[in-house]
Every structure is written in structure tokens, then in C-alpha cells.
Amino acid sequence: MKNNFDIPQLFLRLVLGIGFLLPVMDRFGWLGAAGVNGNAWGNWESFVSYTNSLMPYLSKSLAGIMAALATLAEIVFGITLIIGFKIRLAAIGSFLLTLIFALSMAVFLGPRIPFNYSVFADSAAALLLACIPAYRWSISD
């Protein structure tokens, strides 16, 4: 049965999924150097340093592990949201990941920073996606 959430949920899934995958491509250097075409990091080492700035209580090596875990989560959430697999679970995971990211940014970089990059809005969008009752154009519920 068609509902009023069909197009908005598909749009949310696509933009959240792409929003996870593009930064992953940036941190692997696949989109070019830092500062080119809006790239933030341009390489893995720069991303690990950024992760360490969000978790200054960790050593550089532990920040590297957290960077790898966050990257893995972003890849999984990005792909599953785009293809429509386990959407609710991926949306909840996306909500939690982006909320933690936003809170870390606010605490360690300043309260305005996560708003400048719409991280709280991404988190809210993921939470909203998790609350939609049914998902069309998906390969699982």
C-alpha cells in the first residue's frame, strides 16, 4: 500500500547514504587532495588526526582504531541505506553514529561547529527515517 512517506523516505535514504560514502572516499584520497573540490582530508593520516581532535583523550593509535571503526560503520550504513537493506537498523545506527560525532564536535571543537556542518540535522534525519512505518523500494524490511 502506498503511503505519504514513499518519496521522502527514499530521498532520506539516498542523501544519508551518499552523505556517508563521500567522506569515506575523501579520507581515502579518492576524491583528490585536501582543499580540492571541498575535500576535508584527502588522505587517511589527516582523517586520523581529525578523529584524534574529536577524541583527544585517546592516543593516536587508538584514534586510528576509532577512525577505522567509524569508517567501517559509515560504509555499511551508506550502502545499506542506498540499497534498502535493514533500513530501520541502519537508520538507528546512523542516528547514533552522527549523534556521537555531533556531540564530540560540540565538546572538543566548539558548539557551533556541528551546526555549521549540519551534523545534528543529519542525526535527526536518520532518527526520522527510523520512525517511518514502512519502506518501499527496499530489498528487506
From TrEMBL:
Lipoprotein as UniProt keyword: no
Alphabetical list of Pfam families matching this protein: DoxX
Membrane-spanning parts: 62-82, 89-109, 115-135
InterPro entries, alphabetized: DoxX (IPR032808)
Membrane topology: Multi-pass membrane protein
GO cellular component entries: membrane
Highest rank taxon of the organism: Bacteria
Record localization: Membrane
Alphabetical UniProt keywords: Membrane, Transmembrane, Transmembrane helix
Name of the featured protein: DoxX protein
Biological source species: Mucilaginibacter pineti
Source species taxonomy: Bacteria, Pseudomonadati, Bacteroidota, Sphingobacteriia, Sphingobacteriales
